[in-house]
Design goal:
about 425 residues; Ubiquitin-like (UB roll); 5 domains; 4-stranded mixed beta sheet
């Protein structure tokens, strides 16, 4: 019995050793059976989804090159910022574990695919990418697969096309989006209608509509129009939570026939309630008092909360800080809405940073005499606190009233390139002016 036990242990040891050697020490083409694959660290993906992306099948023979190729496939998807793997040898083969960190994902944005609702496009993408939730990485094979899915959807409806993708700034907010576009699509915005009849009679809207009608169909074009021309009208009147869109394409006619290249667009509008100003609480401000900041804000309790006026107030606070050399001040306003009283209150955390002093002025494109005039017109000496407002006043004079700087001296230029170059180590800022 003892002899049999020793033989069994020895045989198990030989199996473990041979499986390990098959991967780590034997020739490049040596393999061992893959008995288990696990994943750790993923949050948005399930373990089976990650294993599927790695392209490995339990039971299949696997070698060193296969392990690395599987890790490379995960990296190439664009979904992961880090991929590591480890393995354990067993008597019957090899157990593999991936340890990953998922990377940034950004919203998908379908720019000129008017024939399908976003939900239809999302369903088509999920047939290829079951984990798709409306967001994709900035680059990688899964983004290409999403484009392929949209291509397949178009082809299935008799509309062969080539879909491209590009990371662009979010036209409706902060950050970026992964924008998909149909190449060579010849469509125009034929009509833009709103569910709110007040917009149909708005002189401002009617004045700006020609800027978009007849232009190439693009959701980004429409969204920018809504953001820049339509939304401010509501914000000014206290509709701080107005919802515009998403835009709807309402095509008519036989869907089996060739679709018109004239695209009618309908925008649902939900204004919501009118809000009134309640108050604001400040924190982090040491240079400017609450009284001074509130005076700059120009908002009084009980008044209609003018959204555009509120944004202008934040800008005035930033400008006042910049007047004292605080060029990197940041305001973090957070709104609290009272849905019963229809009021809004803000808490604002101020990150003042450090004041900058004037370093030097670098001028190009001027004669020595003209340079002296500019330096004479600049009122801040090196080492003094930098006042950004005075810098902007100098620019205004150079661009619109050059005689205030140069007097009767003949100076010819069409434009003035201007930059502020900060040195965070020495807390100085240099002025660069290029006359062209």
């Amino acid at each position: 019995m003892l002899r049999f036990l020793r033989a069994s242990v020895a045989w198990t040891f030989l199996l473990l050793l041979s499986a390990f050697l098959a991967i780590s020490q034997s020739p490049e083409n040596a393999t061992a059976p893959l008995k288990a694959v696990r994943a750790e660290g993923q949050k948005l993906l399930t373990e089976p989804q990650l294993v599927a992306l790695a392209g490995l099948e339990p039971g299949a023979p696997i070698g060193r090159k296969d392990l690395q190729a599987a890790a490379d496939r995960l990296v190439q998807t664009g979904l992961f910022s880090k991929v590591n793997y480890s393995f354990q040898t067993r008597a019957d083969g090899l157990a593999l574990t991936f340890n990953v960190e998922e990377g940034l994902r950004i919203p998908a944005y379908f720019d000129n695919v008017p024939w399908f609702a976003d939900t239809e496009i999302a369903d088509a993408i999920r047939k290829k990418l079951p984990f798709y939730d409306g967001a994709l990485p900035e680059a990688g094979t899964v983004v290409d697969q999403a484009a392929d899915a949209i291509n397949a959807l178009l082809t299935s409806r008799g509309m062969p096309a080539s879909v491209e993708h590009e990371v662009i700034a979010n036209p409706l907010g902060n950050g970026n989006v992964q924008a998909f576009r149909v190449q060579g699509a010849a469509m125009q915005i034929a009509k833009l209608e709103f569910s709110d009849p007040a917009l149909a009679s708005s002189k401002i809207i009617q004045q700006h509509l020609p800027e978009i009608l007849g232009k190439a169909y693009s959701r980004m074009t429409i969204d920018l129009f809504l953001s820049e021309q339509v939304k401010p009208l509501y914000l000014q009147r206290g509709y701080l939570r107005v919802k515009l869109g998403p835009p709807e394409v309402r095509l008519t006619g036989n869907p089996n026939e060739k679709l018109s290249d004239q695209i009618p667009v309908f925008v649902p509008v939900t204004p919501g309630p009118v809000y009134h100003w309640k108050d604001v609480q400040w924190s982090g401000n040491t240079l400017l008092s609450n009284f001074t900041i509130n005076d700059l804000l120009k908002a009084k309790p009980g008044n209609i909360a003018d959204g555009m006026g509120i944004e202008a107030g934040w800008d005035r606070v930033r400008e006042e800080y910049a007047r004292h050399g605080y060029l990197e001040v940041k305001l973090d306003p957070v709104a609290a809405f009272d849905e019963q009283a229809h009021t809004v209150a803000y808490t604002v955390n101020v990150h003042e940073g450090q004041p900058y002093k004037f370093g030097k002025m670098i001028l190009t494109g001027l004669s020595p005499v003209a340079e002296r005039r500019v330096r004479t017109a600049w009122p801040i000496a090196p080492g003094e606190i930098f006042d950004k407002i005075k810098f902007e006043e100098l620019l205004t004079n150079l661009q619109t009233h050059p005689q205030r700087v140069f007097g009767e001296l003949p100076v010819h230029f069409d434009q003035v390139g201007h930059w502020l170059q900060t040195d965070a180590t020495n807390l100085t800022v240099d002025i660069l002016l290029d006359f062209k």
